[in-house]
Amino acid sequence: MKLETIDYQAPDSAKRFVESLHETGFGVLSNHPIQQQLVEKIYQQWYDFFNSEQKHEYLYKPETQDGFFPASVSETAKGHTVKDIKEYYHVYPWGRIPEQLKQDILAYYQQANTLAAELLAWIEQYSPEDVAQKYSIALSKMIENSQKTLLRILHYPPLKGDEELGAIRAAAHEDINLITILPAANEPGLQVKTKQGDWIDVPSDFGNLIINIGDMLQEASDGYFPSTSHRVINPQGTDKTKSRISLPLFLHPNPEVVLSERHTADSYLMERLRELGVID
Ligand SMILES: O=C(O)CCC(=O)C(=O)O
Ligand SMILES: [Fe+2]
To answer: Which residues of 247-269 are buried (b: 16+ CB within 10 A; e: fewer)?
Structure first.
Protein backbone atom coordinates (compact mmCIF):
# COMPACT_ATOMS: atom_id res chain seq x y z
CA MET A 1 0.00 0.00 0.00
CA LYS A 2 1.16 3.48 -0.78
CA LEU A 3 -0.23 6.83 0.23
CA GLU A 4 -0.06 9.23 -2.66
CA THR A 5 -0.18 12.96 -2.28
CA ILE A 6 -2.99 14.40 -4.38
CA ASP A 7 -2.94 17.90 -5.85
CA TYR A 8 -6.17 19.51 -4.64
CA GLN A 9 -6.31 21.62 -7.81
CA ALA A 10 -5.84 18.76 -10.29
CA PRO A 11 -8.90 18.05 -12.49
CA ASP A 12 -9.37 14.53 -11.08
CA SER A 13 -8.51 15.36 -7.47
CA ALA A 14 -11.94 14.60 -5.95
CA LYS A 15 -12.14 11.16 -7.49
CA ARG A 16 -8.58 10.20 -6.59
CA PHE A 17 -8.95 11.57 -3.08
CA VAL A 18 -12.07 9.51 -2.42
CA GLU A 19 -10.42 6.39 -3.89
CA SER A 20 -7.53 6.88 -1.49
CA LEU A 21 -9.92 7.19 1.46
CA HIS A 22 -11.69 3.99 0.42
CA GLU A 23 -8.45 2.06 -0.07
CA THR A 24 -6.49 3.31 2.95
CA GLY A 25 -8.73 5.43 5.19
CA PHE A 26 -6.33 8.30 4.48
CA GLY A 27 -6.01 11.00 1.84
CA VAL A 28 -3.14 13.48 1.54
CA LEU A 29 -3.65 16.82 -0.24
CA SER A 30 -1.14 19.36 -1.49
CA ASN A 31 -1.95 22.75 -3.01
CA HIS A 32 -5.06 23.11 -0.83
CA PRO A 33 -6.76 26.32 0.35
CA ILE A 34 -5.67 26.27 4.02
CA GLN A 35 -3.19 29.10 4.58
CA GLN A 36 0.15 27.59 5.52
CA GLN A 37 1.27 30.88 7.05
CA LEU A 38 -1.61 30.73 9.49
CA VAL A 39 -0.76 27.15 10.43
CA GLU A 40 2.88 28.09 11.08
CA LYS A 41 1.85 31.05 13.20
CA ILE A 42 -0.45 28.84 15.26
CA TYR A 43 2.31 26.27 15.81
CA GLN A 44 4.59 29.01 17.15
CA GLN A 45 1.94 30.70 19.34
CA TRP A 46 0.81 27.44 20.92
CA TYR A 47 4.35 26.19 21.41
CA ASP A 48 4.89 29.32 23.51
CA PHE A 49 1.61 28.72 25.35
CA PHE A 50 2.50 25.12 26.22
CA ASN A 51 5.85 26.33 27.52
CA SER A 52 4.19 28.93 29.75
CA GLU A 53 2.55 28.71 33.14
CA GLN A 54 -0.62 30.26 31.71
CA LYS A 55 -1.80 26.85 30.50
CA HIS A 56 -2.63 25.84 34.07
CA GLU A 57 -5.26 28.58 34.28
CA TYR A 58 -7.18 26.79 31.55
CA LEU A 59 -7.37 23.30 33.04
CA TYR A 60 -10.09 21.34 31.20
CA LYS A 61 -13.55 21.01 32.64
CA PRO A 62 -14.71 17.39 32.80
CA GLU A 63 -18.34 18.38 32.01
CA THR A 64 -17.57 20.40 28.89
CA GLN A 65 -14.14 19.01 27.85
CA ASP A 66 -12.76 22.37 26.72
CA GLY A 67 -9.38 23.64 27.87
CA PHE A 68 -5.96 22.26 28.72
CA PHE A 69 -5.30 18.56 29.30
CA PRO A 70 -1.94 18.08 31.04
CA ALA A 71 0.26 15.06 30.33
CA SER A 72 -0.80 13.58 33.68
CA VAL A 73 -4.40 13.13 32.49
CA SER A 74 -3.60 12.60 28.81
CA GLU A 75 -5.29 9.79 26.92
CA THR A 76 -4.64 6.10 27.06
CA ALA A 77 -5.68 4.71 23.68
CA LYS A 78 -8.37 2.02 23.56
CA GLY A 79 -6.82 -1.37 24.37
CA HIS A 80 -3.61 0.14 25.76
CA THR A 81 -2.43 0.56 29.36
CA VAL A 82 0.32 3.17 29.05
CA LYS A 83 -0.52 6.85 28.64
CA ASP A 84 0.52 8.73 25.52
CA ILE A 85 3.41 11.20 25.86
CA LYS A 86 1.47 14.35 25.09
CA GLU A 87 -0.46 17.31 26.41
CA TYR A 88 -3.18 19.12 24.52
CA TYR A 89 -5.79 21.83 24.41
CA HIS A 90 -9.38 21.42 23.23
CA VAL A 91 -10.74 24.39 21.32
CA TYR A 92 -14.45 24.80 20.75
CA PRO A 93 -15.69 28.19 19.54
CA TRP A 94 -18.04 28.29 22.57
CA GLY A 95 -15.28 27.24 24.97
CA ARG A 96 -12.46 29.00 26.82
CA ILE A 97 -9.57 30.17 24.65
CA PRO A 98 -6.69 32.38 25.85
CA GLU A 99 -7.34 35.87 24.54
CA GLN A 100 -4.06 36.26 22.64
CA LEU A 101 -4.65 32.98 20.76
CA LYS A 102 -8.30 33.42 19.93
CA GLN A 103 -8.28 35.23 16.64
CA ASP A 104 -5.93 32.96 14.71
CA ILE A 105 -7.19 29.67 16.08
CA LEU A 106 -10.82 30.58 15.34
CA ALA A 107 -9.85 31.73 11.83
CA TYR A 108 -8.24 28.33 11.32
CA TYR A 109 -11.28 26.53 12.78
CA GLN A 110 -13.45 28.36 10.29
CA GLN A 111 -11.21 27.72 7.26
CA ALA A 112 -10.78 24.04 8.04
CA ASN A 113 -14.52 23.58 8.59
CA THR A 114 -15.28 25.15 5.21
CA LEU A 115 -12.81 22.83 3.51
CA ALA A 116 -14.23 19.86 5.43
CA ALA A 117 -17.72 20.57 4.06
CA GLU A 118 -16.30 20.56 0.53
CA LEU A 119 -14.36 17.33 1.10
CA LEU A 120 -17.46 15.65 2.54
CA ALA A 121 -19.31 16.66 -0.63
CA TRP A 122 -16.49 15.01 -2.66
CA ILE A 123 -16.85 11.88 -0.54
CA GLU A 124 -20.60 11.80 -1.09
CA GLN A 125 -20.25 12.41 -4.83
CA TYR A 126 -17.85 9.51 -5.28
CA SER A 127 -19.52 7.07 -2.88
CA PRO A 128 -21.01 4.11 -4.78
CA GLU A 129 -24.78 4.46 -5.07
CA ASP A 130 -25.62 1.73 -2.57
CA VAL A 131 -23.32 3.39 -0.04
CA ALA A 132 -24.60 6.93 -0.67
CA GLN A 133 -28.13 5.65 -0.13
CA LYS A 134 -27.27 4.84 3.45
CA TYR A 135 -26.46 8.44 4.36
CA SER A 136 -29.46 9.76 6.30
CA ILE A 137 -28.73 13.33 5.12
CA ALA A 138 -25.96 14.88 3.01
CA LEU A 139 -22.59 14.30 4.71
CA SER A 140 -21.73 18.00 4.55
CA LYS A 141 -25.06 18.80 6.23
CA MET A 142 -24.24 16.48 9.14
CA ILE A 143 -21.53 18.86 10.38
CA GLU A 144 -23.30 22.15 9.57
CA ASN A 145 -23.06 24.51 12.56
CA SER A 146 -22.09 21.56 14.76
CA GLN A 147 -21.07 22.55 18.27
CA LYS A 148 -19.32 19.21 18.67
CA THR A 149 -16.53 19.70 16.13
CA LEU A 150 -13.30 19.74 18.10
CA LEU A 151 -10.00 21.39 17.29
CA ARG A 152 -7.21 19.82 19.32
CA ILE A 153 -3.82 21.45 19.61
CA LEU A 154 -1.32 18.79 20.56
CA HIS A 155 2.08 19.28 22.10
CA TYR A 156 4.37 16.27 22.22
CA PRO A 157 7.22 17.44 24.45
CA PRO A 158 10.88 16.60 23.86
CA LEU A 159 11.77 13.14 25.20
CA LYS A 160 13.75 13.21 28.42
CA GLY A 161 14.55 9.51 28.71
CA ASP A 162 12.42 8.94 31.83
CA GLU A 163 9.26 8.07 29.91
CA GLU A 164 7.28 5.04 30.97
CA LEU A 165 8.43 1.84 29.29
CA GLY A 166 6.56 1.29 26.03
CA ALA A 167 5.03 4.76 25.99
CA ILE A 168 4.87 6.50 22.63
CA ARG A 169 3.66 9.93 21.55
CA ALA A 170 0.32 8.55 20.43
CA ALA A 171 -0.45 4.85 20.63
CA ALA A 172 -2.32 3.17 17.79
CA HIS A 173 -5.93 4.29 17.71
CA GLU A 174 -8.82 5.15 15.46
CA ASP A 175 -10.61 8.50 15.54
CA ILE A 176 -14.23 8.52 16.72
CA ASN A 177 -15.60 11.30 14.52
CA LEU A 178 -16.70 11.54 10.85
CA ILE A 179 -13.43 12.73 9.28
CA THR A 180 -10.28 14.37 10.66
CA ILE A 181 -8.34 17.16 8.97
CA LEU A 182 -4.72 17.50 10.01
CA PRO A 183 -2.05 19.80 8.62
CA ALA A 184 1.33 18.04 8.51
CA ALA A 185 2.97 18.57 11.89
CA ASN A 186 6.26 20.42 12.38
CA GLU A 187 8.02 17.09 13.00
CA PRO A 188 7.53 13.60 11.49
CA GLY A 189 6.18 10.56 13.30
CA LEU A 190 2.65 9.93 12.02
CA GLN A 191 2.14 6.41 10.71
CA VAL A 192 -0.82 4.48 9.38
CA LYS A 193 -1.46 0.75 9.51
CA THR A 194 -1.92 -0.99 6.17
CA LYS A 195 -4.41 -3.77 5.41
CA GLN A 196 -1.44 -6.15 5.58
CA GLY A 197 -0.74 -5.02 9.12
CA ASP A 198 2.49 -3.08 8.68
CA TRP A 199 3.07 0.55 9.55
CA ILE A 200 3.94 3.12 6.91
CA ASP A 201 4.80 6.80 7.23
CA VAL A 202 2.12 9.29 6.23
CA PRO A 203 3.72 11.69 3.71
CA SER A 204 4.10 14.65 6.03
CA ASP A 205 5.84 17.25 3.89
CA PHE A 206 5.26 20.57 5.56
CA GLY A 207 2.25 22.10 3.85
CA ASN A 208 0.44 18.81 3.19
CA LEU A 209 -3.00 18.30 4.56
CA ILE A 210 -3.87 14.86 5.87
CA ILE A 211 -7.47 13.67 6.01
CA ASN A 212 -8.56 10.46 7.62
CA ILE A 213 -11.77 8.57 8.09
CA GLY A 214 -13.15 8.21 11.61
CA ASP A 215 -15.41 5.56 13.11
CA MET A 216 -18.59 7.56 12.47
CA LEU A 217 -18.09 7.64 8.70
CA GLN A 218 -17.10 3.99 8.76
CA GLU A 219 -20.41 3.34 10.54
CA ALA A 220 -22.44 5.57 8.18
CA SER A 221 -20.88 4.00 5.06
CA ASP A 222 -21.28 0.47 6.44
CA GLY A 223 -17.53 -0.06 6.26
CA TYR A 224 -16.93 1.25 2.73
CA PHE A 225 -14.67 3.93 4.20
CA PRO A 226 -12.37 2.32 6.79
CA SER A 227 -11.43 4.08 10.02
CA THR A 228 -7.77 3.15 9.91
CA SER A 229 -5.45 2.76 12.90
CA HIS A 230 -2.74 5.36 13.14
CA ARG A 231 -0.11 6.35 15.67
CA VAL A 232 2.69 8.83 16.35
CA ILE A 233 6.06 7.20 17.01
CA ASN A 234 8.82 8.63 19.14
CA PRO A 235 11.65 10.58 17.52
CA GLN A 236 15.18 9.18 17.29
CA GLY A 237 18.58 10.78 17.77
CA THR A 238 18.78 14.55 17.90
CA ASP A 239 15.06 14.86 17.07
CA LYS A 240 14.38 13.65 20.62
CA THR A 241 15.05 17.15 21.87
CA LYS A 242 12.36 18.66 19.64
CA SER A 243 8.75 19.33 20.46
CA ARG A 244 6.10 18.26 18.01
CA ILE A 245 2.97 20.34 17.55
CA SER A 246 -0.05 19.14 15.60
CA LEU A 247 -3.53 20.39 14.95
CA PRO A 248 -6.22 17.80 14.22
CA LEU A 249 -9.76 19.03 13.59
CA PHE A 250 -12.25 16.30 14.44
CA LEU A 251 -15.43 16.86 12.46
CA HIS A 252 -18.38 15.78 14.56
CA PRO A 253 -21.96 15.62 13.28
CA ASN A 254 -24.75 17.31 15.17
CA PRO A 255 -25.82 14.95 17.98
CA GLU A 256 -29.21 14.02 16.50
CA VAL A 257 -27.78 12.97 13.13
CA VAL A 258 -28.63 9.36 12.29
CA LEU A 259 -25.48 7.44 11.34
CA SER A 260 -26.96 3.99 10.90
CA GLU A 261 -29.79 1.77 12.12
CA ARG A 262 -27.82 1.26 15.31
CA HIS A 263 -26.64 4.76 16.08
CA THR A 264 -27.13 8.49 16.17
CA ALA A 265 -23.97 10.58 16.41
CA ASP A 266 -24.74 11.15 20.09
CA SER A 267 -25.33 7.50 21.04
CA TYR A 268 -22.18 6.53 19.16
CA LEU A 269 -20.03 9.17 20.83
CA MET A 270 -21.31 8.26 24.30
CA GLU A 271 -20.56 4.58 23.73
CA ARG A 272 -17.00 5.38 22.62
CA LEU A 273 -16.29 7.86 25.41
CA ARG A 274 -17.48 5.29 27.95
CA GLU A 275 -15.08 2.73 26.47
CA LEU A 276 -12.25 5.28 26.73
CA GLY A 277 -13.11 5.98 30.35
CA VAL A 278 -13.64 9.69 29.62
CA ILE A 279 -17.21 9.51 31.00
CA ASP A 280 -18.92 7.06 33.41
O1 LIG B 1 -0.35 14.26 16.07
C2 LIG B 1 -0.70 13.66 15.04
O3 LIG B 1 -0.08 13.75 13.98
C4 LIG B 1 -1.95 12.78 15.06
C5 LIG B 1 -2.79 12.94 16.27
C6 LIG B 1 -3.95 12.02 16.31
O7 LIG B 1 -4.02 11.05 15.59
C8 LIG B 1 -5.08 12.27 17.25
O9 LIG B 1 -4.96 13.12 18.14
O10 LIG B 1 -6.12 11.62 17.09
FE1 LIG C 1 -6.02 10.22 15.58
So the answer is: bbbbbbbbeebbbbeebbbbebb
Q: Whose CA is nearest to atom 5 of ligand 1?
A: 248
Give me ligand 1 centre to Cα 139, in Å.
23
Single pTM value for the model: 0.96
Ligand 1 atom with the smallest distance to the CA of 86 is 1
> Which residue range is the domain that position 136 belongs to?
5-276
ipTM: 0.99
CATH number of the structural domain spanning residue 95: 2.60.120.330
Which sign, positive or negative, has the C-alpha torsion 99, 104, 107, 113? Answer: negative
Q: Best of 86, 179, 246, 250 to mutate for ligand 1, by most ligand atoms within 8 A of CB?
A: 246
Q: Parallel, antiparallel, or unpaired: how do β-strands 87-91 and 179-183 relate? A: unpaired
